[in-house]
Amino acid sequence: MTTTAALGTGERTRKDDPGAAPRRRRPGRLRRIGLPYLLLFPALLLELLVHLVPMVIGIVVSFKELTQFYIRDWGTAPWAGLDNYSLAVDFDAPVGEALLSSFLTTCLFTVLSVGLCWLLGAAAAIFMQETFRGRGILRTLFLVPYALPVYAAVITWAFMFQRDNGLVNHVLHDQLGLTDSPPFWLIGDNSFIALLVVSVWKGWPFAFLVIMAGLQNIPKDIYEAAALDGAGVWQQIRRITLPSLRPVNQVLVLVLFLWTFNDFNTPFVLFGEAAPEAADLISIHIYQSSFQTWNFGTGSAMSVLLLLFLLVVTGVYLRLTSRGRKTVDA
Fold this sequence. Notes:
Layout: H1 2-16, H2 29-61, H3 83-89, H4 94-127, H5 135-142, H6 144-147, H7 150-160, H8 167-175, H9 190-215, H10 220-228, H11 233-244, H12 246-261, H13 265-271, H14 282-291, H15 296-329
Helix pairs in contact: 3-15, 4-9, 4-12, 7-13, 9-12, 12-15, 14-15
C-alpha cells in the first residue's frame, strides 16, 4: 500500500510540476519499421539507377526497330512489336542459327568451367584442412588469380597463348615436343580450350575460398568419430564433407553459373571484338549483334531472351536444390 501510494504521488507530482523532466517515449512502430528502409535507401537508389532503369530501357528498345538511322533520337524509331524476337528465335534464318550456335557453345563452356572450378576448389580446400608447414603461403598463392584484375590477368594469358613467341607453345612444342607444329590458340577450334583454361584459372580460387570457409563449420569430432569407426578418407568426404557443404555448394554453383554464363570481359580481352566461332559466347554475340551491325533492337531482344532463360534456370535450380535439402533434413 505504501509503495503504491508513493508511486501514485510521484506520478501526480510529475503531472502537476511543469518543470519536471518529461518521460522518455519508446520509439513507435512506424519509426522502428522506417529505419531499415532509410538505411537501405542509398543502395536501392543506386540499384534503380544502375540496373533497373537501363533494364527497362533495354526492354523498350527490344520492341523497336532501332538501327543506325535512329541513334540520334532513338525515341523516334518505329515500333517493331515482336519482330525482333521472331528474328532471334527463327533458327532456320542466319540470325537465329548463329544465336543458337552461340547459346549451345555458351552452355557447354559454362558446364565445363563451373564443374572444373568447383572440382579444383573443393579438392584444394579439403587438402588445405590438414595442418602442414607452408599452408598459409599456399593459401595465399591459390588466391592470387582471384585477386588479380581481370584485364591484367587475361592480357597476360593472351601473350602466353601467342603462337610464335608464347610461353604455352614454348613449353608444349619446343620443350616437351607434344605437338608437331606450334598450334594456334587464339583462333580456330583451339580458342575454346584457351578460353576454358583462362576461365577456370581465374574462377577456381573463388570456389576454393567459399568451400574453405564452409569447411570451418564442420566439427572435427565428426571426422575423428568416423575414423574410429573405420571410415577412410573418401568415405569421410562422401558421407560427411559433401552433405555438410550442401548449402554452401547450392549458392556457390549458382553464382559460378551466372558469372560464367554472362562473362563478357574474358572473351573480349582475350580475342577482341570478333571472337572465333568456337569461342563465340552469347555475351560477345549479343555485343556484336548490337554494336557492330548497329541493330540495337535485335540485340536488345536477344538480351531479354537471355535474361528470361537465366531467370527460369535460376528458379528451377533453387526449387530443386531446396526440395533436396528438405528431403535430407527430413
